[in-house]
Amino acid sequence: MAALFAFFCGVIFGLGLIVSGMANPAKVLGFLDLAGPWDPSLALVMGGAVAVAAPGFAWLRRRRASLSGEPLHWPSATRIDWRLAAGSVAFGAGWGLAGFCPGPALVAAAAGGREALVFVAAMAVGMALFSAIRYFKSPS
Description:
The protein is 69% helix and 0% strand. With 140 residues, the chain is mostly helical. It has one domain. The longest helix is centred in the last third of the chain and has 24 residues, at 114-137. The radius of gyration is 18 Å and the shape is globular. The termini are far apart.
């Protein structure tokens, strides 16, 4: 049941990305281009998402389990360290260069976008490299 609910939420998220235009890298790059013809629609989509999600997160914070009965796992890290900062810089650079972040890239790739397929492939290689480095660095 939890997998079905997760799938349903993913479909809703993907449809929201398509309807809002956020699976279109030109729209995202238009938001990030402050010197050119700036497109504020991404800020409106983000603001709307925060306004919808914030009450739900506040309500969930008071619960021990999700509506489907699955335990809730909240982040325990509260420190800003070099790994978080480096990851944020890498994410921002990739977003600014390609106009994609992971969710919209997967939606655009599923729709057959070539640029998105290249981005998703590069993202998968990056995740595999990170996992390999982490695996070989951790003590056995």
